[in-house]
Amino acid sequence: MTDLVPIPIVLFEHFARAGLDVQAILRRANLPSARFNVPKPEGTTAEFFALWHAVEQSGADEDLGLRLGIEALTDEENVAALAALHSASLGEGLERLARYKRMVCPEKVWVDIVHGEAQLRFEWILADEAPPALLTDLIFAGVVNLARQGTGTPVTPQRIELTRHRANEAMLRKHFGCELRFNAPHDLLVFDETALSLPMVHRNAQLLAVLLPGLELALPKNNTARTLVDDVRKVLSEMINGDRPAIAKVAKSLGMSVRTLQRRLGELGTSYQDLLDNVRHQWAQRLLKTKDLGIGEVAFLLGFEEVNSFARAFQDWEGTTPAKWRTQISRVRVG
Question: Which residues of 6-32 are buried (b: 16+ CB within 10 A; e: fewer)?
Fold first, then answer.
């Protein structure tokens, strides 16, 4: 998957209207202005995150992400949102949003039905860190706004789960009108399953008949192959919670044998152990950055039997100990 994220010029217009110094933001994010002298500028996931971190550090209002989510996500130029808005039902719309989102940027959305809940999980596939809070607020506000505009009803999430520390709880609760959970394993937007059957008032089968074939052709040609890697990473992320997921358990959850899983991963140039190490590495960074956990607690959550085993693995990943890495990251953020 190509690591390119659209950075629309209109976004800077929103920043300017919010009273922010766009040039100062670009300098803080180490992004030259010349990068945006083209019709459709793009950046890597890391650069996109750096831009949003710079916005957060520039004195932006805490509700900026929520306001931009309402203004931006349902823009007619957003093909994924357009396909969702003109679907027959909210459930169909969310599935299309999830399917075509990856055409726009390397962000994957899963829609899972669990015990009467429709859980939308968002993951930036090529990210080395959790997404900036303002960006997550924008995305969640945009999806909720799409659901409300699309159905013509005041759809309210059943629950929102956020990986970040508890912050701005009153603001978020007022905007979304639902239960909030912080320090969660994943960023989740949860609706009652019955909401999926709500009809979309703007549904247009003729428009979709014209739009969808082009969208299908535009999907990455290796989408099916890459999805297996994504799905294994997803399963591992969900299973890592004080245990080391066995390959047999992961294979069973994906409906295949261990041998088939190993063969197909090998064809993609990776292995189960490589993916497990990668997921553990990313979660180690996230837990050390954002959670109030001791090193031993992080090791336990990642499924290491001993703290020393975790320390050795982290040394291989980062060239330093977990404690020193956490201290270095804290100093960088303060600076």
Answer: ebbeebbebbeeeebebeebbebbebe
3-state secondary structure of 80: helix
Residue 155: name the closest of 187, 181, 192 by CA.
Answer: 192
* Model pLDDT for residues 46-73, shown as the tens digit of each residue: 999 999 999 999 989 999 999 999 886 4
CA distances 284 to 51, 129, 163, 273, 299, Å, are: 24, 10, 13, 16, 8
Task: List the one residue out of 17, 41, 19, 40 whose CA is nearest residue 31.
Answer: 41
182 in Cβ contact with 111 (< 8 Å) = no
Structural domains of the chain, with CATH: 1-60 (no CATH), 62-220 (no CATH), 223-334 (1.10.10.60)
CB 29 within 8 A of CB 47: yes
Nearest alpha-carbon partner for 230 in 128, 125, 302: 125
* SS3 at position 253: helix
| Tokens 């080391």 found at | 244
pTM of the model: 0.71
